[in-house]
Specification:
The protein is α+β, with helices and mostly antiparallel strands. The chain has 8 helices and 14 strands. α6 packs across α7 and α6 packs across α8. The longest helix is centred in the C-terminal third of the chain and has 19 residues. 35% of the residues are buried.
Amino acid sequence: MKDEKLSTKETVVRFLEENSGHPVSGSAIAESLGISRTAVWKAIKSLEADGYMIDASTGKGYTLRQENDVISEAGIAKYLRTPEAANIIVHQSVTSTNDLLREAAMREDVPEGTIVVAAEQTKGKGRRGRSFFSPVGTGIYFSILLRPSMETGDAGKITTMAAVAVAEAIHRYGVEDVGIKWVNDVYVAGRKVCGILAEATTSLETGEIDNVVVGIGLNIYTPKEGWPEDIKDRAGSILGTEKIDDARNKLVAYTYEQFMDLYHNAGEKMIADRYRSMCFVPGKRITIIRGGVERSGLALSLDDQCHLLVRYDDDGTEESLFSGEISLRLE
């Protein structure tokens, strides 16, 4: 999906990001990268068109402002411990990162761990056929390709991993009051800031999973115009309204790294323990919504498969839920 050779623009922005906040001359960039000064100038103009804030000063050169928050492959890679191991593809706008990556996954040369990132989705996908609000400038939307060896019945573990990875990445960034609402919604200060949608492709011959595309949407900033009417009562953002240097690149990198570490290295019990430590639902009064039918009850506990044990109010029976939708009841 991506040429291993970086474009001139990519090499220039990587050089500027390595010297963020400090001026570097056009001649120094050209000499270091082995390109002409004209090529440097053209790359700078192209980067500014993409939204990068670059100061140009006679006698000093170009300075990438530290308050930039532009998504780029180089910007994400610099926050990864092993950037060479990641196949990162960044787009400014797509219909859906899940759709784009699912189509690419049909090719065997697209490796596991490939991540497609976008600043905007025009047809973002949510759970149960819903749309996912994915405007430019306020969020970050990305999908990760997996080629797991597992049965279809075990695919739910992947969304559990994703929820843990997102919550831990937000906490690693320095944000407090992060929690998981069963099954896989991530909240900050009582507001939903993340949506997760995992889509699997199975083999008709074997019935086993060929690949899974894990889509993650993060609300980084609060839109100036506010949230749409249908989500305004529950939607929130990770960082509020103030734009912060490289926040989106960092949060993509942190989430990707946390997720791949869980996927490759964590056992089921470890994942469940980390999920339980962040899930705020046990002990709460809830409404369970299935097939258009609502039942109220008490959330009791989570087992090692992260199934939610509930006790229904109407007849006192208990049930272990492995999927579904719940809402918290205000006392």
